[in-house]
Specification:
This protein is α/β, with parallel strands linked by helices. It has 12 helices and 12 strands. Helix 2 packs parallel to helix 3 and helix 8 packs parallel to helix 11. The model has no long low-confidence stretch (mean pLDDT 96).
């Protein structure tokens, strides 16, 4: 059984407000057993609190987030912080690192995507020698094709030592059946983002715009009614997807909801956790 945890991007504001340790205590109260750290600085205070969480709360640090080169997101990078990253993994008994997204400049052509993957491959190989697996997290854009080849496949071909973190919501949004994705990438799907896919109701504002003659704005709102949802409150078939994820090699399930639409993220996590417990997780 994969370890169930939370993608802490959901809780980055809580960490800023409360500090890492109180947030970890709340996570433990929700019966979540692991964290994936993202969009939260790996400074000494946060790292020490995570280390304490491992020892005192039994919370695993399932994965840490890294970049390839420095950029707008504040995070450790493989190019500049490789030794620190390995040290953090050792300190926290963390076996997985993840890159959350390739830069936008790598998304525009086959050549650019190949070049980015070729830069990642040596780091993936070095980390593998250290007993640490580097994984790449998809979005919908990774299902775009160049010369008939998905970007996800380009990355896999050029960087064979790179594993994958499959975000099932973004797979759905990218137009591929999540079950097909899990079958296609069986054996390299080490981390799974458990994120539901909800289609919202047509907002009155969209109808008003169309009735007033502004079909473009109204139709744009109609097209973009997809939402991130609490697990079990969308359209994803979790009773089939989670066993298929295990068969594909998943070691961690991380609950994630990019937007909570005004709800407290702890309440959203509680709802997701309750649903997952109800289906045996």
């Amino acid at each position: 059984m994969a370890t169930l945890g939370v993608q802490m991007m959901m809780l980055k504001d809580k960490v800023s407000e409360m500090g890492m340790w109180p947030v970890l205590e709340k996570i433990a109260e929700l019966d979540l057993k692991a964290v994936e750290v993202s969009q939260i600085p790996m400074d000494e205070a946060n790292t020490a609190a995570l280390e304490r969480g491992v020892k005192e709360l039994g919370i695993e640090v399932g994965a840490l987030s890294v970049g390839l080169h420095p950029g707008p997101m504040l995070m450790d990078t493989l190019a500049e912080d490789f030794d620190k990253i390995v040290t953090d993994c050792r300190r926290l008994d963390c076996r997985f690192l993840r890159i959350g997204m390739m830069p936008f400049t790598a998304m525009v052509s086959k050549q650019a995507c190949e070049q980015w993957a070729a830069e990642v491959q040596p780091y993936a190989a070095r980390l593998k020698a250290e007993g640490i697996a580097l994984c790449y997290h998809n979005h919908h854009v990774d299902l775009a094709k160049f010369d008939g080849e998905r970007m996800f496949d380009i990355v896999r071909r050029v960087a064979p030592d790179l594993g994958f973190e499959v975000d099932l919501h973004w797979v759905q949004r990218g137009g591929m059946a999540p079950l097909d994705m899990l079958k296609a990438y069986s054996g390299v799907c080490k981390l799974i983002h458990v994120k539901d896919y909800r289609v919202g109701a047509l907002p009155q504002e969209a109808l008003d715009l169309m009735m007033a003659g502004d079909m473009k704005k109204g139709y744009d709102m109609f097209v973009n009614i997809i939402e991130f949802a609490e697990v079990g409150q969308g359209n994803m078939n979790w009773p089939e997807l989670l066993p298929a994820s295990l068969e594909a090699g998943a070691e961690y399930f991380f609950i994630e909801q990019d937007l909570t639409y005004g709800r407290d993220p702890f309440d959203c996590l509680a709802d997701s956790r309750e649903y997952l417990a109800g289906i045996g997780y």
